[in-house]
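Weekly modeling sync, notes
Attendees: AB, CL, MP (scribe)

Item 1: holo prediction request
CL wants a bound-state model with guanosine-5'-triphosphate before deciding which constructs to order. AB pointed out that an apo prediction alone won't tell us much about the pocket. Agreed to run with the ligand included and paste results into these notes for async review.

Input as submitted:
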Amino acid sequence: MREEDLEIAIKVVIVGNGAVGKSSMIQRYCKGTFTKDYKKTIGVDFLERQIECDGEEVRLMLWDTAGQEEFDAITKAYYRGAQACVLAFSTTDRDSFEAIQSWKKKVEDECGEIPTVLVQNKIDLLEQTVVDPEEVDLLARALGCRLMHTSVKEDVNVNAVFRFLTSRCLIEMRREEEEYMGNNVLHPLTICAFGPPTHNNKGLNGNGTIVLRSGKTKNRKKKNLLKNTCRLL
Ligand SMILES: Nc1nc2c(ncn2[C@@H]2O[C@H](COP(=O)(O)OP(=O)(O)OP(=O)(O)O)[C@@H](O)[C@H]2O)c(=O)[nH]1
């Protein structure tokens, strides 16, 4: 297998209060459909879509998590290993806006800092808005996140959200790869396939066996983008 045959897979979690449009966003993006019916997500759901971004084939694995607090214990486990995050709230639901900080914290507790977009959904209902654009801007700045306005119903900006996150992840991956290569240290999640390892660190056995190294990184908070990616040396 050649390196270029390996695809990059990125796990994205979509979080936010119930009924802000998380499931709808994923359905829209992966299936191109929208339904007016509300069926609350029980626990977690999952869909994926393959895209080309910045010259790379990328498989996006989109994890739709329940917004209802009763499912918190279940959903938390699914945040683990996420490499990007959508923090969603609704234009017509004040509580969902006010809950954003706590959603960010929940994800950060499991994943550290990962590329994140703050999404104000349902902008087709702007005349019923319960949030002030300035406070939304301020929140985005305070969280250090890009802010995007979407209408899943009218298919506004949904693609842009996932494209932005993918692009950010790819930049981070390249940066980390260069950093590890520059330090002459093997990548934290590396498959050494049938070749002599460059040094005999834990997990490498020197006889050409395929070894999947653990995802330990120097700084878990910042360097967890590559947890789920594998590369062939
Ligand atoms: N007007 C409008 N309605 C939307 C939009 N996006 C979603 N909805 C509606 O909002 C309701 C809730 O959407 P869901 O996607 O089920 O919400 P959710 O965030 O996944 O909810 P949980 O599963 O409970 O966490 C549904 O009736 C959708 O049709 C939008 O952009 N505009």
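Recorded for review: The first helix runs from residue 22 to 31.
Action items: CL to compare against the apo run; MP to circulate these notes.
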